[in-house]
Inverse folding.
């Protein structure tokens, strides 16, 4: 079944980090500690990306999720102090969200393990697309006229507009 | 994919290049002009956009198939066809009129950032109408949406405006996330992001057992589009955002965002789930057509019925816009027509309806901006005696409302006529019947507003509403457009839209 080699051991370690961190997030009553657990969990995901031979995604995961999203969440927790001392572990939606989570888990499990939606694993030997293989090719693809240059440039305009809009809304100069 | 040819690719994004230059100009003017002169940016932006809107009409500049033999440019990111041009004209025209309408609006018109963000939103909407790739669709949609979230919350000290911005943002982010999930599923199934490549891939044997996941992805995508066009049941944000946002912003988001979203929605469903796509034993088209028909019925009915009891004119127009989205969805459902001409006429009827809706709705909002800036009120009852205060304003609002209701000679009559005909030609007679019934309900609440303006009396009848020269131009142009589209121009524009629709289907392998 499952061979015990270095790969599986590392996979197990990163899975434990990911899942353990996730449990830490929901089980903690202090939102600040929860956000630290979240960063911990996201780090495990980055490790899984390395295992899947996707070093670029791993680096993005660290930069964007741990670097930016994690810090943002920590800041927003600090700025909304009223919510940092929550006593209840479960809130009113816990039953409903539990059902949804279990259903999603079952659907994913069934979809991956059982061949209900076509043969599983048959197509996975070949990569779905060979557009981008390395980070260097990804860089070229982003500025290549016959690939992704248009969305790439549009994103820069979008960010400019978002920046301007954020300044207008945050600045308090109207009398 | 052939060798990239910059020169032949540039015309495909000509309006966007122009808009980018305008954005730079607006930012520079904003930093160099004194605060009292910043209104001037509005005229620069509006004239620029109006000029860009005229470019596609120039004879001989019609879109031509690119080097690869189809209309796809920039690595398949956009499809530069005649239909995209028609929607780009709508979007650019609404952007231009919005800038002019904002000039005199308090706490909005004197800020250069407002025009910059409107330009970015217009750019997003313009690219969205031409997008032909999942990545492009999403980035363009977000460029439009994020700019609009900022604009909705633009009156920072007005709690209603910030609330509407927040609501719009939360609903928008949520529906974008669901749509992105649908996109990622589609990409995961096929390994393709180009809309036209997706369909070919899904028609293959490997998908025979996979109808359910494909349908799940389709429903998720419908959620995203449904939010943008404010179709029921994704309409909850509409009344609050319409009421709270600064009125020029409401005007813009009610037309530009809706038109571009309908354009990309039709393109998406025609390209990704064409009528010959059969997965397993299911004809995929039947599913989405039924979705559209159901959404059309619910949107029309709910929008019209709730609009009956509205006291605030902006909320009334919000529910009216939900109902209008329902009428247009009827045209989308009519894509199930079995003949090429029928499907083309369905697309064209949607195009024409949105074309006339752009001008009618902008006209209505322009009068409301003038009225509320002068009186500070947005309730329908306060419109009483408008006929005696400013007869021309009352007449313009009447024309706009009659057009929305679908009464000749205003443009709305032909808009509804073409939509209902398309539905009947596509064997959706029951849908057309419900549409006609709804149009009658709609007529009632539009007529109530007109009655208040002309019959009811008020104490302020000797105080005319001041109308600046800029506004006279806006009102004049929009009224003229509504009347022309309702009389001599209807057939011309519709024929043009039919041609445009032809290019939407042209070169699609296997459709018809």
């Amino acid at each position: 079944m499952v061979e015990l080699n270095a790969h599986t051991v590392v996979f197990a370690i990163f899975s434990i980090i990911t899942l353990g961190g996730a449990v830490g997030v929901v089980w903690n009553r202090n939102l600040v500690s929860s956000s630290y657990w979240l960063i911990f969990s996201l780090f495990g995901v980055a490790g899984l990306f390395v295992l899947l031979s996707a070093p670029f995604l791993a680096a993005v995961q660290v930069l964007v999720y741990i670097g930016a999203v994690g810090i943002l969440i920590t800041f927003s927790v600090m700025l909304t102090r009223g919510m940092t001392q929550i006593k209840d572990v479960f809130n009113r939606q816990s039953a409903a969200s539990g059902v949804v989570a279990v259903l999603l888990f079952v659907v994913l499990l069934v979809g991956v393990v059982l061949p209900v939606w076509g043969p599983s694993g048959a197509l996975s030997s070949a990569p779905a697309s060979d557009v981008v293989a390395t980070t260097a090719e990804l860089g070229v693809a982003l500025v290549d006229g016959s690939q992704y240059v248009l969305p790439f440039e549009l994103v820069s305009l979008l960010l400019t507009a978002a920046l301007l809009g954020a300044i207008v809304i945050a600045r308090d100069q109207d009398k | 994919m052939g060798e990239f040819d910059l020169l032949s690719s540039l015309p495909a994004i000509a309006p966007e290049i122009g808009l980018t230059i305008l954005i730079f100009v607006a930012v520079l003017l904003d930093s160099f002009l004194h605060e009292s002169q910043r209104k001037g940016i509005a005229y620069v932006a509006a004239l620029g956009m109006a000029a860009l809107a005229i470019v596609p009409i120039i004879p001989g500049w019609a879109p031509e198939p690119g080097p690869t033999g189809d209309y796809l440019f920039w690595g398949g990111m956009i499809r530069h066809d005649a239909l995209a041009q028609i929607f780009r004209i709508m979007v650019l025209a609404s952007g231009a009129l919005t800038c002019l309408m904002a000039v005199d609006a308090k706490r909005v018109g004197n800020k250069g950032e407002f025009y910059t963000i409107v330009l970015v939103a217009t750019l997003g909407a313009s690219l969205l109408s031409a997008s032909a790739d999942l990545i492009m669709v999403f980035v363009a949609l977000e460029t439009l949406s994020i700019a609009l979230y900022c604009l909705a919350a633009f009156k920072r000290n007005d709690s209603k405006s910030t609330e509407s911005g927040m609501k719009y943002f939360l609903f928008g982010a949520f529906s974008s996330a669901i749509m992105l999930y649908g996109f990622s599923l589609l990409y995961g199934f096929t390994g393709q992001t180009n809309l036209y490549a997706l369909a070919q891939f899904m028609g293959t044997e490997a998908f025979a057992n996979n109808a359910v996941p494909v349908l799940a992805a389709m429903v998720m995508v419908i959620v995203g589009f449904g939010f943008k066009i404010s179709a029921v049941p994704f309409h909850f944000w509409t009344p609050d955002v319409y009421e709270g946002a600064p009125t020029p912003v409401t005007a813009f988001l009610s037309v530009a965002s809706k038109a571009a979203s309908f354009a990309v929605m039709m393109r998406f469903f025609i390209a990704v789930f064409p009528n010959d796509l059969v997965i397993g034993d299911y004809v995929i088209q039947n599913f989405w057509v039924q979705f559209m028909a159901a959404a059309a019925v619910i949107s029309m009915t709910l929008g019209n019925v709730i609009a009956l009891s509205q006291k605030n004119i902006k909320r009334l127009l919000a529910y009216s816009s939900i109902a209008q989205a329902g009428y247009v969805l009827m045209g989308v459902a009519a894509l199930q027509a079995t003949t090429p001409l029928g499907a083309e006429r369905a697309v064209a009827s949607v195009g024409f309806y949105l074309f006339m809706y752009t001008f009618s709705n902008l006209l209505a909002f322009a009068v409301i901006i003038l009225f509320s800036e002068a009186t500070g009120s947005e309730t329908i009852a306060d419109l009483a005696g408008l006929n005696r205060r400013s007869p021309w304003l009352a007449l313009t609002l009447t024309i706009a409302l009659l057009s929305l209701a679908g009464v000749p000679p205003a443009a709305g009559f032909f808009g509804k006529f073409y939509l209902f005909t398309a539905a009947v030609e596509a064997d959706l007679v029951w849908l057309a019947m419900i549409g006609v019934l709804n149009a009658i309900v709609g007529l009632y609440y539009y007529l109530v507003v007109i009655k208040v303006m002309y019959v009811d009396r008020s104490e302020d009848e000797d105080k005319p509403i001041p109308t600046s020269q800029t506004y006279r131009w806006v009102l004049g142009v929009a009224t003229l457009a509504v009347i022309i589209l309702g009389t001599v121009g209807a057939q011309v524009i519709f024929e043009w839209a039919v041609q445009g629709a032809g290019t939407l289907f042209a070169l699609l392998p296997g459709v018809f």
Chain A touches chain B at residues 111, 116-118, 123, 128-129, 144-151, 154-155, 157-158, 160-162, 164-169, 171-172, 174 (CB under 8 Å).
